[in-house]
Amino acid sequence: MVxxxxxxxxxxxxxxxxxxxxxxxxxxxxxxxxxxVEFHESDLLAYCRDNDxxxxxxVGCIPQxxxxxxDAMSKMITENASEEFLYSLSNYCALQGFVEDQxxxxxxxxxxxxxxxxxxxxxxxxxxxxGRPGQGVxxxxxxxxxxxxxxxxxxxxxxxxxxxxxxxxEIEKNSPHRFEFxxxxxxxxxxxxxxxxxxxxxxxRISHALSVYSCQLRQPNQVKTIFDFLKxxxxxxxGSLDLSFQDDSVADEKISFLAYLxxxxxxxACFPYEPPAGSLRFRSLIAGFMKKYHHIPLNSGNVVxxxxxxxxxxxxxxxxxxxxxxxxxxxxxxxPRQWLTSLNIETEIDRAANDVLTVIDAPSQSDLMIExxxxxxxxxxxxGMAHFEAVTSSAFVQLLDVTRExxxxxxxxxxxxxxxxxxxxxxxxxxxxxxxxxxxxxAILCGLVKxxxxxxxxxxxxxxxxxxxxxxxxxxxxxxxxxxxxxxxYYYGCLFHELLSFQLPDRHLPAQRKxxxxxxxxxxxxxxxxxxxxxxxxxxxxxxxxxSCLIHMDVDQSFLPTPFPVKAAIFESxxxxxxxxxxxxxxxxxxxxxxxxxxxxxGIDFTYADSSLTLFNKMVLCCIQEGGTLCFPVGTNGSYVYxxxxxxxxxxxxxxxxxxxxxxTECALNQALNNVKTPWVYISGPTINPTGRVYDQKEIExxxxxxxxxxxxxxxxxxxxxxxxxxxxxxxxxxxxxxxxLYLSSSSFSVCLLGELSSMMLTGALKFGFxxxxxxxxxDLFHSFSGLSRPHSTVKYAIKKLLGLSEKKSGxxxxxxxxxxxxLRSRSRRLEETLESCGWDVLEPHAGFSMVAKPTLYLNKTxxxxxxxxxxxxxxxxxxxxxxLKATGLCINSSSWTGIPGYxxxxxxxxxxxxxxxxxxxxxxxxxxxx
Length: 931
Ligand SMILES: C[S@@+](CC[C@H](N)C(=O)[O-])C[C@H]1O[C@@H](n2cnc3c(N)ncnc32)[C@H](O)[C@@H]1O
Fold this sequence. Notes:
The protein has about 950 residues and is α/β, with parallel strands linked by helices. It has 33 helices and 28 strands.
């Protein structure tokens, strides 16, 4: 209220508080109104907010029509403001910067948002709401902010004669929205503001609905957390927020996730490292849920997380590479088309030569499935369960028995019967596992596929009680997917957490479980030979040892602070509902991006995945199908090379030289391709990972020209680019001219562009990979491998938004990227200095967050390492990784990973304090090794 109102209100209060004789009127508690009422001058609830007053009730009757003279409202309210102006304040409001302004409800919206921060959890807000915008609009204002509404009263009143409704007419002129008036008090057909205004002008009486809303927050603390976060600079997003759902439990799910996201964005600047098997917290929560709700004694180590059920099934089949697998017909849709044939069963010899896996579809009804298993004797069975069989454990027991007898591995999919509910219905498989341990030949697969808030937001997990299987599955995720999108793990982690906090700690000791007989190990299929060789020899991520904190300079991910626009885009993507196709149409943006960034207007088919590694792997499969040979320059990101080996690709390494910064040259490429029949050349660029060197325009033109000469297929991987230190000096790429020319000269030559936007867009854990293809047979072949971890629509929305922001060569996003590049450059220098002073020879990087160095001082040195056990080791360029890890807890990649003899790899996009610790570790290692 404004100041003169305060004075009038006091007068009114006295008139009400005293009787005719001037004596105080006492209420039942012997108090007067004077003891209970205060008046303060305040812009809406500012007084309460500034004085930390928490309210039980907020009652408001405030203007809901824009002033017909918008300039009037921008005047300061002063003691000597004109009477006319002060009067107008009781009827009109100004634009408030809320989406509800478009209905004149901006002031109400602001009052509600201010109310959220000052109301007590059980408090109630009561508002007089003119029904002119329509009941739907009025209710939505509250509901999308997490309120439930009770209508206390409703009537129809004449439009106040002193209030000009022409602002509403103006709104109707510029939008399809129609307000709701009535002719006289008895009219029951609504008329719009324009008609009402004309009718009123001509002497007619117009009316509108008036309701009294009583509003209460559904999840007060969580909604307060969300708005608290939005107020910390993310105000613009509040227009997108939509917390209303038909079903209360769905609304609660969204509210609790957004509150969780608010708190992590507020507290932490970056997403932490998560192991490939899945976030430790998430896996512990899954295990905790199994323990508390289903009495199955599992721990986080029994759980491996996958991006989706389809990916889990395909990857598992690749790990075992069985001759024959039987897969539930509902689960074969995303398997490679090449597998879905029965033609190979008979011709055992052909099969061995082609190394093709055959998958037979089967109905999930257990008697039919069992019959098929008995007849066909598959090595792997993946099946779900019919609904009528899922309640008791008998069908599961039968499946366990028959697969054990035959010597098949069983993966049982319980996705359709798994409920994330505080009262989960009976589930035969889980009931069985409460009393029996899971036999070694069986594992449980579960996709979380029933999301009603964010359709298709999927994560899957596999449960096993076999250590080697769990380890191998985790490594398979690492090799084929890289990681499971952390944001999806956060989402479901939040749900599990809510369910667990709902339950009292279990005070019963877990029941003794029976140990099931296992199949004899000779009968049962083991991992494929390529899998064994990669799993045993590849330098994959190191397992976090409980309670020890490893420092990861061996992960291709940025742990630098997530900048403001990125947080905003992610939060907004989860705030929304009903996104339109155009808002998540990422292809237009990516097309534009590759055209302006690399001069690559050639893509006709775009595919997206959670990571570029996943897309690369599908390309490897295409290469294998075409009988091609993958050619990697020496000094390629080890993860790519290991994945190609795991997938059994034919591989040729093209030599690179130290004096050329381990860059691929035309000459070396020429020599190598001379001896390869169907070459597929992998080029990481413009920025090369791991060396951090850059190919300039001339260099890439020469390389492409050579590739074209041999009709090679080229995979240009831009995933690590966009953070070049000296952009001006380097000048960027424009491939359009050279490729147009080369495409004319060779028909089998083709270039596909692979990329990932996380590093250059600073999205950290929010990964988004794309692949642009432009040759038809290859496109068809590529799509025969459809089992991809596809980015969720929220990711597409956020990435599209950020791409839009990045296009502007100014503004907050641009500033953040520029700062990041400067920061990485200075870090690369700091690391270089430390390494040089500790006896390493560094190859100075020119871009990105990965660099290589040679441990010259340490090679062939025999060192005594003191750790849990003392041991002596003669250091070389590959065991130095283990030695540094044991001595200091720092993880780097050795030369086995970089492929460059002598050179180890370091990533530098660590959280600042971690980076400093890493530098200390390098110095510490020198002290230890040179004792
Ligand atoms: C229709 S009158 C209602 C008066 C009285 N409260 C009642 O319910 O009868 C609307 C009131 O809202 C007040 N108002 C308008 N904008 C305001 C703001 N930003 N902060 C506080 N009060 C405001 C006006 O001063 C006016 O007293």
